[in-house]
Amino acid sequence: DITQESIADVEMTIEDIPNSVLTAIEEQQRKYPHMKVAVGIFALDGSKAYIYNGNTKLFGACTIKAAYACFVLKEAERRGININEYQIEYVPSTDKMGGSGDIATSSKKYYTVKELLQKLISISDNTAYRMLDKVFSVDDFKNELNEIGGATEFKNRYFSYTNVYERYNEWRWIYDYEQTGTEYAQYLESLLKMAQAYYFGIGSYTQHQHKSGWTENDDGNMYTACDAGIVSGKYILVILTRDDWAEAPNAD
Fold it and tell me: Could you tell me which of 164, 165, 223, 247 has the fewest CB atoms within 10 Å of its CB?
């Protein structure tokens, strides 16, 4: 058995994606001939991975929010912030962000950190992301990403381009934090089982930790549908797709 302490010493064996999975990818690419696809399946012990287009960087959209939620909870724990009580003011003129979420249309003025995290993950609320940034700096988050081998190329302040290795490194970081068993680490696991827009389609979305991401008509044409997470507590799955010719994101 591989212990938590020895995981860092494991050299990962990387193999091409199995033919059965490749066949499924190619079937989708026949339906959507302009779609770019990257897939990574990683053993949680760090020993083995199956990769397709591993170095291809695609826009990850809101999949970055899983790692940001981990950053927020680690920072809250380090700084002694009670996420159930600490409130952040919603200032529409500076905090409102378009896209997914419901805070932007709300008249509520104050949200606890926990409420913002729930909205950030469950319904991918973009305004919650910007509000949390006022207390838990995205600049500091990016420094952390750089340390762990996560995303480094951002399209704007909040959303990154990424490849499957970078997204894996973020989820490995999430998993390692969860293994500490602290109150906030346990909450992170439950939080990431609340994420909706469940593109994986493996059982119920509440069975697995994940965070999807999508864009519509971004930068002219950037129709993205992505998902990444921990499946059955056994492996990390990352799927990134982009189709600049589609009329809408294809989650197939």
Answer: 247
Q: What is the pLDDT of residues 55-108, one digit of tens each?
A: 999 999 999 999 999 999 999 999 999 999 999 999 999 999 988 888 999 999
- Predicted TM-score (pTM) of this structure: 0.93
Handedness of CA 237, 140, 99, 205 (dihedral sign): positive
Tokens 């790692």 sit on residue: 67
- Kindly report the number of other CB atoms within 10 A of residue 9's CB atom: 9
Listing DSSP states for 127-154 in one string gives: HHHHHHHTTS-HHHHHHHHHHHT----B
State the angle between helix axes of 65-79 and 138-148 in degrees (0 to 180), rounded to the nearest 10. Answer: 110
Largest interatomic CA distance in the chain: 54
Cα separation, 20 vs 37, in Å, equals 16
**Distance between CA 243 and CA 51 in Å, rounded?**
20
Query: CB neighbours (10 Å) of residue 34?
Result: 12
Q: What is the DSSP letter of 49?
A: E
Going through the chain in order, the beta strands assigned E by DSSP cover: 13-16, 36-43, 48-52, 58-59, 87-89, 110-112, 161-162, 209-215, 224-231, 235-242
